[in-house]
Amino acid sequence: MKIVVHSGTVIDPANNRAAALDILIEDGQIRAVEKPGSFLTVGDAGFDATGMIVTPGFIDMHVHLREPGFEYKETVLTGTQSAVAGGFTTVACMANTNPTNDNGSVTRYIIEKAQAANLARVLPIGALSKGLKGESLADIGEMVEAGVIAISDDGRPVMDSNLMRRALEYCSMFNVPISVHEEDLHLAAGGVMNEGPTSLRLGLKGIPNAAEEVMVARDIMLARLTGGRLHIAHLSTRGAVALVRQAKAEGLPVTAEAAPHHFTLTEEVVAGYNTNAKMAPPLRLLDDVDAIKEGLQDGTIDAIATDHAPHHHDEKEVEFDQAANGIVGLETALPLTLRLVNEGVLSLSEAVRKLTINPARILGLPYGALSVGAPADIVIFSPMRAWKVEPKQLRSKSKNTPFGGWELMGSVALTMVAGRFVYDERT
Ligand SMILES: [Zn+2]
């Protein structure tokens, strides 16, 4: 079966393409990318992308799908419905499920659920430590064999430096990166938001920037010691960005991601005890937000990842101190990233790069580019189309977003995985 996506503006950073082009898809693969009008289309086999942007499907290297164990928050099915609606064709899901994904059988269970859902590609990330307890290494070899593409205790930092060292050494043997959630639990103890003017005013216990930065510094030193591949998740502070910049200048195998909320919002959103602004790491000050943007601009920050963290209404409709950390992010990531393009922080190609080929390379995936012969994972979107975020209308099972009521620009029209339409706004 042949499909032609015609008359769109193709942005494909991996192949240096940014032009009006037609794409021929056959048997689930990109067959050819040529100037408009190169391919004949008949009936349903064409998609007219006039006025739209056509890019490789987005890859989110940091989501929480909550299954097994927390299906009341999200399932692999609802999470991937949310993913494809947001233009994501591949998501890497964190291990803090119940049971924890710290062995091959849980990994295989998640992969089976993803095959049944048959929407986005789901790549499990295995736990670093058994039960995320930070005490002993999980069955990393067994999980890699079962299909995990990275290792992480995300949600929890690895406080034991020697365990972290051994994990970096061990993962090098399998050539998988370790994604780290950087938070010194002693410095952060009892903190529920950023330590700054807003926490003082609200009388809430704060988490200082240093809680993140001391751990980033330690792990960079351990990457230097071991040569292991370190990926730093959700950078939130100016100091952490500076440390990663320095590590890269030194040539260390360190990569980093930022989440849309950390380049969009400041701690002031917490005012009024808004539990949908509660997350870890917390929203910081404007100076930190500016530093994240600078890091995205100069390449210090490789990838944009959502940290999609669905929670039930009842876990957010409580006192701020008690509320769960995190927000849903898959369906707002594209328009929030396009704000950076409109602000001149990133070109459209650079923005797309951070959502596609960069995370693909960090994770060693054959996706993220519209190369001839590659799987036809494609998203088509209208960059100027405005829409209002209505939490109830999100595909995710959870509605915990701080962006409810926001008017955003940039709307997904079509998402394709291996040439199959998995999201179509017309239906
Ligand atoms: Zn985290």
What percentage of residues falls in helices of 4 or more residues?
25-40%
Which whole number gives the mean pLDDT? 97
- Structural class, by secondary structure, is alpha/beta
How many helical elements?
14
The stretches of 5 or more residues where confidence is low (pLDDT under 50) are: none
The percentage of residues in β strands lies in 15-25%
Bound molecules: zinc ion
Cα(first) to Cα(last) distance is 21 Å
Notes on the structure:
The structure is a single chain. The protein has 427 residues and is of the alpha/beta class. Helices cover 31% and strands 22% of the residues. It has helices spanning 76-85, 104-117, 140-146, 161-174, 185-188, 197-202, 209-226, 238-249, 260-264, 286-297, 313-316, 333-343, 348-355, 357-363; strands at 2-12, 17-26, 29-34, 46-48, 53-56, 58-63, 88-93, 121-124, 151-152, 178-180, 193-194, 206-207, 230-232, 254-258, 303-304, 378-388, 407-417, 420-424. The strands form 4 sheets. Strands 1, 2, 3, 4, 5, 16, 17 and 18 form an 8-stranded mixed β-sheet that branches. The protein has a 5-stranded parallel β-sheet with strand order 9-10-13-14-15. Strands 6-7-8 form a 3-stranded parallel β-sheet, sandwiched between helices. Strand 17 and strand 18 form a beta hairpin. It is globular, with a radius of gyration of 21 Å. The two termini are 21 Å apart. It binds zinc ion.
Task: Provide the descriptors you would attach to this structure in a database record.
427 residues, alpha/beta, eight-stranded mixed sheet, 18 strands, binds zinc ion
